[in-house]
Amino acid sequence: MLTVDQVEKSYTGGGLFSRTSKKILHNISFALEAGEVLGIIGESGSGKSTLGRLLLGIEKPDRGTIQFEGISIGERAGRRGKISAVFQDYTSSIHPYYTVEKALAEPLKLSGQKGREVEERIDLLLRQVGLDSSYRKKYPHELSGGEAQRVCIARAVSTEPQCILLDEAVSSLDASVQFQVLELLKKLKESYGMSYIFITHDIQAAVYLCDRLMFVRNGQIVEIVSAHQLTDVRSEYSNDMLRMALRLAGSGEDRSVDLENRKERIL
Questions:
Q1: Share of residues in the chain with pLDDT > 90 (%)
Q2: What's the burial of 82, exposed, middle or buried (CB within 10 Å: 0-12/13-18/19+)?
Q3: If 0-12 CB within 10 Å is exposed, 13-18 middle and 19+ buried, where does residue 248 land?
Q4: Percent of the chain with pLDDT over 70
Q5: 152 and 171 both lie in a single domain
Q6: Backbone phi, then psi, for 151, in 5-degree steps?
Q7: How many CB atoms are located within 10 Å of the residue 188 CB?
Q8: What is the arithmetic mean of pLDDT over 149-173?
């Protein structure tokens, strides 16, 4: 469905008289299958969010290709109605002067829906993300973090895209709310049959949601492994991240990873 082939990306920095180029992504290649959830795992500065912007067509790669069903993601036809996104900063993802109703109506109207169809769709979307119709008239500042992110998710699924990119979409939420949102994402995936690209530094969340994990370090893919086979990771970097996740799981949080039994879920 989505294919990334030998993608590279650099940014130019430095002062007016000293402009240097820093390569952020190096020879990135992978594929995302229909209905699959792929986790892109890496520490801050690993290049994973830059990759996310390229996958959304917000930026263009310096080299290589990104195609959705054989069409370049850089072309409008390659991404419109096919891929949407949910970002970490839910506070700025919704226009501060838009009600929830208006925020959800906007993509629906752009997709050609009108009148009563839009109204009914908004009610359905709110129900699907666990909110009732009373939220229609609320503004972003009246929502909790979890509620705001649910609205962002509802907007992302509103036009039924084939894929949603989630860029650190739960990392700003409290642990209990993270779990609720992850559960919501699982249910929506089952309802719509979508694929997810789940960009995160949180392996526990990724193991809970994803089918495969792609470890990224310094702009390069270290390895890609099934979420069911985490004990088979080969690289020192991946093992270090897994050990860190285990330490966090044992530090009093209410989620845990059981690598010995190769459990998919984090409870």
A1: 63
A2: middle
A3: middle
A4: 90
A5: no
A6: -65, -40
A7: 19
A8: 93
56 and 168 both lie in a single domain: yes
Q: In terms of domains, do 9 and 140 share one?
A: no
pLDDT at 196 over 50: yes
State in Å, rounded, how far the first CA of the chain is from the last one: 31
Beta-strand relationship, 2-15 and 63-68: antiparallel
**Model confidence band, residue 250 (pLDDT cutoffs 50, 70, 90):** low
Q: What's the pLDDT score for residue 92?
A: 80
Number of domains composing the chain: 2
Q: Which residues contact 124 (CB under 8 A, 6 or more apart)?
A: none
Beta-carbon contacts of 235 under 8 Å, excluding residues fewer than 6 positions away, are: 215, 222, 223
**203 located within any domain:** yes
Residue 66 lies in a domain: yes
Domain match, 232 and 107 both = no
Residues 27 and 78 in one domain: yes
Q: Print burial letters for 89-113: b (CB count within 10 Å at least 16), e (below 16).
A: ebeebbeeeebbbbbbbebbeeeeb
Assigned domain for 60 exists:
yes
> What's this model's pTM, rounded to 2 decimal places?
0.87
